[in-house]
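Regression test attached.
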Amino acid sequence: MGAIKLENVEKWFGDLQVIKGVDLDIPDGEFVVFVGPSGCGKSTLLRMIGGLEETSRGAIVIDGRDVTAEPPARRGLTMVFQSYALYPHMSVRDNMGFSLKTAGAPKSEIEQKVNEAARVLKLEPFLDRRPKALSGGQRQRVAIGRSIVRDPTAFLFDEPLSNLDAALRVEMRYEVAKLHQSLKATMIYVTHDQIEAMTLADRIVVLEFGKIAQVGTPRELYERPANLFVAQFIGSPKMNVMPCRTDAGRYHLEGGRGGVYDGDHEAVQVGVRPEHIRLTEPGQGACDAKVDVLEYLGADTFVIADGGPLGQITVRTEDERGLQPGQALGLEFPAEYLHFFDEAGLAVHRG
Ligand SMILES: Nc1ncnc2c1ncn2[C@@H]1O[C@H](COP(=O)(O)OP(=O)(O)OP(=O)(O)O)[C@@H](O)[C@H]1O
Ligand SMILES: [Mg+2]
């Protein structure tokens, strides 16, 4: 079991409050990802759950038991970090079994658990090697293996893949997903990587200055961001946001045209994702813009356009042929993909 509940937890470093009252209910077996800008408190919150950082106020409850005052060893969790710090003089086998050995587990049990972890992580061919004879991805797998052998109630990962090169990250992302499928254990995973967050998470927690900005499935956050912060944080390239005015069933863009608005609340900003904008002739669509830069990526192209008073507008298109820097365009914003925000940055309507 590994149900984890945070009840209005706060963290103060002296006078500085870095976690500002977080409530979160994680059912057993869920894969939760923490994302947010650097310094927003992701690692601190994870370390509080693990018991490596004291909780100033509020409670942490694991499987119905209040563990707020308990040391890490009594919480039954395990942490995997970016730096895997393996013992260089020990074999992979001994690195993985070390914590069980120091805990006084019988040899046969250590052997059985190490073998099982090695099987799950496909480390069997490397069990007798030293860490220096492994690739970065293999070393990170050994670090995860060290955690698995302890049968934790939950795994806490703090950017475990961020030291790896791009290709290895993709491979390890797949391994982590498979690991969750086979262990079905609760996992809390901190990352900066959008793709990791979107692909691994059952639910994503977006943190902003020590508070939860929104919790939801990747699809909910992408399709129905609750506020401007989440709207611009989830999705790459990020959502275009432009000032607007709404009245009598229409939204108006400065220096542009606008379109239909059937929301009830007054909105002051409209957002549209780069992949949802369609290119058309100048004078048509919601506004006009001029091609500034074309970023060709193979499968698609980012058209960075100058929207005049609307600022820079990024369009993602699959066919950039015929486009030239300086060229005038019309931009069509399909009504069903528009996000409207009020003065306070809260989402008030979605097309
Ligand atoms: N021991 C400490 N004493 C004082 N302030 C701290 C301490 N540890 C962290 N902080 C502050 O708490 C805030 C949150 O830090 P934290 O490491 O949790 O951020 P993070 O979201 O993990 O950032 P990153 O993405 O850069 O890893 C930061 O402003 C940081 O400076
Ligand atoms: Mg961190």
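Expected vs. actual: identical. The domain at 4-229 is CATH 3.40.50.300 (Rossmann fold).
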